[in-house]
Amino acid sequence: MAPPLLAVERAAAGDPEGLLVLHHGRGTDENDLLGLADALDPERRLRVVSARGPLQVPGWPGYHWYLVPKVGYPDRATFDAARAALGEVHDGLWEESGLGPERTVLAGFSMGAVMSHAMAWGAERPAVAGVLAFSGFVPTVPGWRPSFEDRSTTRAFVAHGTQDPVIEIAFGRAARDQLVGGGIDVTYRESDVVHTIDPAVVPDAAAWLVATLQSE
Protein backbone atom coordinates (compact mmCIF):
# COMPACT_ATOMS: atom_id res chain seq x y z
CA MET A 1 0.00 0.00 0.00
CA ALA A 2 1.34 3.41 -0.96
CA PRO A 3 2.13 5.83 1.88
CA PRO A 4 -0.35 8.69 2.40
CA LEU A 5 0.34 11.95 0.63
CA LEU A 6 1.99 14.70 2.63
CA ALA A 7 0.15 18.00 2.98
CA VAL A 8 0.61 21.45 4.46
CA GLU A 9 -2.06 23.94 5.33
CA ARG A 10 -3.00 27.49 6.13
CA ALA A 11 -5.64 27.67 8.81
CA ALA A 12 -8.72 29.85 8.71
CA ALA A 13 -8.89 32.88 11.00
CA GLY A 14 -11.85 31.37 12.86
CA ASP A 15 -14.20 28.48 12.24
CA PRO A 16 -13.66 27.72 8.54
CA GLU A 17 -16.55 28.39 6.19
CA GLY A 18 -15.17 26.08 3.54
CA LEU A 19 -12.21 24.11 2.29
CA LEU A 20 -9.77 24.98 -0.51
CA VAL A 21 -7.52 22.11 -1.60
CA LEU A 22 -4.47 23.00 -3.71
CA HIS A 23 -2.70 20.68 -6.15
CA HIS A 24 0.74 21.81 -7.29
CA GLY A 25 2.28 21.66 -10.76
CA ARG A 26 4.85 19.31 -12.25
CA GLY A 27 8.21 19.12 -10.50
CA THR A 28 7.38 21.21 -7.43
CA ASP A 29 5.88 20.28 -4.05
CA GLU A 30 3.12 20.95 -1.56
CA ASN A 31 4.58 24.36 -0.59
CA ASP A 32 4.57 25.78 -4.10
CA LEU A 33 0.99 27.07 -4.19
CA LEU A 34 0.47 27.73 -0.49
CA GLY A 35 1.30 31.40 -1.04
CA LEU A 36 -1.88 31.63 -3.13
CA ALA A 37 -3.96 31.02 -0.03
CA ASP A 38 -3.92 34.62 1.21
CA ALA A 39 -4.34 36.01 -2.32
CA LEU A 40 -7.40 33.86 -3.02
CA ASP A 41 -8.81 34.09 0.51
CA PRO A 42 -7.49 37.31 2.09
CA GLU A 43 -10.09 37.26 4.85
CA ARG A 44 -8.94 33.77 5.83
CA ARG A 45 -12.46 32.41 5.77
CA LEU A 46 -11.31 29.02 4.47
CA ARG A 47 -9.12 26.18 5.59
CA VAL A 48 -6.53 25.77 2.83
CA VAL A 49 -4.69 22.46 2.37
CA SER A 50 -1.98 21.75 -0.20
CA ALA A 51 -1.06 18.14 -1.00
CA ARG A 52 2.17 16.70 -2.41
CA GLY A 53 2.13 14.60 -5.57
CA PRO A 54 3.02 10.90 -5.12
CA LEU A 55 5.76 10.52 -7.74
CA GLN A 56 9.42 11.41 -8.06
CA VAL A 57 10.70 11.12 -11.63
CA PRO A 58 14.40 10.46 -12.41
CA GLY A 59 16.00 13.58 -13.90
CA TRP A 60 13.26 15.86 -12.58
CA PRO A 61 13.12 17.91 -9.38
CA GLY A 62 10.21 17.85 -7.01
CA TYR A 63 7.09 15.74 -7.23
CA HIS A 64 4.60 14.74 -9.93
CA TRP A 65 1.05 13.46 -10.05
CA TYR A 66 1.44 11.19 -13.08
CA LEU A 67 3.78 10.36 -15.95
CA VAL A 68 3.44 12.29 -19.21
CA PRO A 69 3.80 10.25 -22.40
CA LYS A 70 2.09 13.11 -24.28
CA VAL A 71 0.68 16.44 -23.12
CA GLY A 72 -3.04 16.05 -22.61
CA TYR A 73 -2.85 12.29 -22.23
CA PRO A 74 -1.67 11.16 -18.77
CA ASP A 75 -0.26 7.68 -18.24
CA ARG A 76 -3.18 5.60 -17.04
CA ALA A 77 -1.51 3.64 -14.24
CA THR A 78 0.05 6.64 -12.51
CA PHE A 79 -3.04 8.78 -13.15
CA ASP A 80 -5.26 6.15 -11.51
CA ALA A 81 -2.85 5.86 -8.57
CA ALA A 82 -2.83 9.64 -8.08
CA ARG A 83 -6.61 9.78 -8.14
CA ALA A 84 -6.82 7.05 -5.52
CA ALA A 85 -4.27 8.80 -3.29
CA LEU A 86 -5.99 12.17 -3.62
CA GLY A 87 -9.34 10.57 -2.94
CA GLU A 88 -8.00 9.42 0.42
CA VAL A 89 -6.76 12.95 1.17
CA HIS A 90 -10.05 14.59 0.25
CA ASP A 91 -12.17 12.00 2.07
CA GLY A 92 -10.00 12.33 5.16
CA LEU A 93 -10.30 16.12 5.17
CA TRP A 94 -14.08 15.95 4.85
CA GLU A 95 -14.40 13.42 7.65
CA GLU A 96 -12.02 15.24 9.96
CA SER A 97 -13.26 18.78 9.39
CA GLY A 98 -16.98 18.27 8.95
CA LEU A 99 -16.74 20.44 5.84
CA GLY A 100 -18.22 18.35 3.06
CA PRO A 101 -17.66 18.28 -0.71
CA GLU A 102 -20.39 20.90 -1.12
CA ARG A 103 -18.17 23.35 0.85
CA THR A 104 -14.99 22.45 -1.04
CA VAL A 105 -13.16 23.95 -4.01
CA LEU A 106 -10.38 21.97 -5.71
CA ALA A 107 -7.68 24.17 -7.23
CA GLY A 108 -4.45 23.63 -9.10
CA PHE A 109 -1.85 24.82 -11.55
CA SER A 110 -0.69 22.90 -14.63
CA MET A 111 -0.54 19.19 -13.71
CA GLY A 112 -2.34 20.10 -10.49
CA ALA A 113 -5.13 21.72 -12.51
CA VAL A 114 -5.46 18.44 -14.41
CA MET A 115 -5.84 16.57 -11.13
CA SER A 116 -8.39 19.12 -9.91
CA HIS A 117 -10.44 18.46 -13.04
CA ALA A 118 -9.98 14.71 -12.64
CA MET A 119 -11.22 14.73 -9.05
CA ALA A 120 -14.04 17.22 -9.63
CA TRP A 121 -15.50 15.50 -12.70
CA GLY A 122 -14.82 11.85 -11.84
CA ALA A 123 -18.12 9.97 -11.66
CA GLU A 124 -16.87 7.91 -8.72
CA ARG A 125 -16.18 11.05 -6.64
CA PRO A 126 -18.69 13.29 -4.83
CA ALA A 127 -19.60 16.58 -6.45
CA VAL A 128 -17.67 19.54 -5.02
CA ALA A 129 -18.65 23.21 -5.01
CA GLY A 130 -16.08 24.21 -7.61
CA VAL A 131 -12.86 23.62 -9.49
CA LEU A 132 -10.28 26.37 -10.01
CA ALA A 133 -7.92 25.43 -12.85
CA PHE A 134 -4.89 27.49 -13.87
CA SER A 135 -3.07 26.45 -17.08
CA GLY A 136 -4.38 22.91 -17.27
CA PHE A 137 -6.78 20.68 -19.20
CA VAL A 138 -9.45 18.03 -18.77
CA PRO A 139 -7.40 14.86 -19.29
CA THR A 140 -7.92 12.17 -21.89
CA VAL A 141 -7.19 8.77 -20.33
CA PRO A 142 -8.33 5.29 -21.41
CA GLY A 143 -10.93 4.00 -18.97
CA TRP A 144 -11.74 7.43 -17.52
CA ARG A 145 -14.03 10.16 -18.74
CA PRO A 146 -15.44 13.28 -17.11
CA SER A 147 -18.99 13.14 -15.80
CA PHE A 148 -21.02 16.33 -15.93
CA GLU A 149 -24.62 15.11 -15.83
CA ASP A 150 -24.66 14.54 -12.07
CA ARG A 151 -22.78 17.68 -11.00
CA SER A 152 -24.66 20.62 -12.39
CA THR A 153 -24.11 22.50 -9.10
CA THR A 154 -20.30 22.39 -9.50
CA ARG A 155 -18.85 25.63 -10.89
CA ALA A 156 -15.55 26.11 -12.69
CA PHE A 157 -12.98 28.87 -13.10
CA VAL A 158 -10.53 28.25 -15.94
CA ALA A 159 -7.55 30.55 -16.61
CA HIS A 160 -4.83 30.12 -19.24
CA GLY A 161 -2.04 32.09 -20.90
CA THR A 162 -2.21 32.70 -24.63
CA GLN A 163 1.61 32.44 -24.85
CA ASP A 164 1.88 29.20 -22.86
CA PRO A 165 4.60 27.02 -24.49
CA VAL A 166 4.09 24.07 -22.12
CA ILE A 167 0.32 23.53 -22.23
CA GLU A 168 -0.83 25.59 -25.18
CA ILE A 169 -3.88 27.83 -25.05
CA ALA A 170 -5.92 25.38 -27.12
CA PHE A 171 -6.07 23.09 -24.08
CA GLY A 172 -7.59 25.81 -21.91
CA ARG A 173 -10.14 26.70 -24.57
CA ALA A 174 -11.00 23.04 -25.06
CA ALA A 175 -11.56 22.62 -21.30
CA ARG A 176 -13.85 25.66 -21.29
CA ASP A 177 -15.84 24.34 -24.24
CA GLN A 178 -16.09 20.83 -22.82
CA LEU A 179 -17.36 22.09 -19.47
CA VAL A 180 -19.82 24.53 -21.01
CA GLY A 181 -21.05 21.75 -23.30
CA GLY A 182 -21.63 19.63 -20.21
CA GLY A 183 -23.84 22.32 -18.67
CA ILE A 184 -21.28 23.57 -16.16
CA ASP A 185 -21.23 27.22 -15.04
CA VAL A 186 -17.78 28.33 -16.28
CA THR A 187 -15.87 31.55 -15.70
CA TYR A 188 -13.05 31.74 -18.24
CA ARG A 189 -10.05 34.06 -18.35
CA GLU A 190 -7.13 34.09 -20.73
CA SER A 191 -4.29 36.58 -20.73
CA ASP A 192 -1.06 37.31 -22.58
CA VAL A 193 1.26 35.28 -20.34
CA VAL A 194 3.32 32.08 -20.56
CA HIS A 195 2.97 28.98 -18.34
CA THR A 196 2.24 30.77 -15.10
CA ILE A 197 -0.57 32.13 -12.94
CA ASP A 198 -1.21 35.68 -14.11
CA PRO A 199 -1.40 37.93 -11.02
CA ALA A 200 -3.98 40.05 -12.85
CA VAL A 201 -6.38 37.09 -12.90
CA VAL A 202 -6.09 36.26 -9.19
CA PRO A 203 -8.58 38.92 -7.98
CA ASP A 204 -11.20 37.51 -10.37
CA ALA A 205 -10.45 34.02 -9.05
CA ALA A 206 -10.79 35.25 -5.46
CA ALA A 207 -14.16 36.86 -6.20
CA TRP A 208 -15.30 33.68 -7.94
CA LEU A 209 -14.23 31.64 -4.89
CA VAL A 210 -16.30 33.79 -2.54
CA ALA A 211 -19.32 33.60 -4.84
CA THR A 212 -18.97 29.85 -5.30
CA LEU A 213 -18.95 29.06 -1.58
CA GLN A 214 -21.60 31.66 -0.75
CA SER A 215 -23.94 30.10 -3.29
CA GLU A 216 -24.09 26.86 -1.33
Layout of strands and helices, then pairs:
Blueprint: E1 7-10, E2 18-23, H1 36-40, E3 46-51, H2 76-97, E4 104-109, H3 111-121, E5 130-134, E6 155-161, H4 169-181, E7 185-191, H5 202-214
Parallel strand pairs: 2-3, 2-4, 4-5, 5-6, 6-7
Antiparallel strand pairs: 1-3
Would you mind describing this structure in some detail?
- The protein is an alpha/beta fold.
- The protein has a single domain (7-214), classed as Alpha/Beta hydrolase fold, catalytic domain (Rossmann fold, 3-Layer(aba) Sandwich), CATH 3.40.50.1820.
- Helix content is 30%, strand content 19%.
- It contains 5 helices and 7 strands; from the N terminus they run ββαβαβαββαβα.
- The chain has helices spanning 36-40, 76-97, 111-121, 169-181, 202-214; strands at 7-10, 18-23, 46-51, 104-109, 130-134, 155-161, 185-191.
- Strands 1-3-2-4-5-6-7 form a 7-stranded mixed sheet, with helices on both faces.
- Strand 2, helix 1 and strand 3 form a beta-alpha-beta unit.
- The chain is globular, with a radius of gyration of 16 Å.
- The model has no long low-confidence stretch (mean pLDDT 96).
Unreliable spans are none
CATH H level, superfamily name: Alpha/Beta hydrolase fold, catalytic domain
Mean pLDDT: 96
Count up the helices: 5
Question: What does the radius of gyration come to?
Answer: 16 Å
Q: What's the structural domain tally? A: 1
Strand order of the largest sheet: 1-3-2-4-5-6-7
CATH level 1 name: Alpha Beta
**What overall geometry do the principal axes of the alpha carbons give?**
globular
Number of DSSP strands?
7
Please state the structural category: alpha/beta
CATH fold topology:
Rossmann fold
Largest sheet: 7 strands, mixed
Distance between the termini: 36 Å
Instruction: Give helix and strand order, one letter per element, not per position.
Output: EEHEHEHEEHEH
From the 3D coordinates, which CATH architecture would you assign?
3-Layer(aba) Sandwich
Strand content: 15-25%
Which percent bin holds the helix content? 25-40%
